[in-house]
Amino acid sequence: MNEYLLTKMTFIKRVTALALLMACSWAIAAEDVWHQREANQLWTSECGCCHMAFPPVLLAKDDWHILMQGLDKHFGVNASLDTKSRDEIAAYLERNAGSSWSYSSDSQRITETNWFVKKHQASIRLVQKGRIKNLVDCVACHK
Question: What is the pLDDT of residue 41?
Answer without folding.
Answer: 96
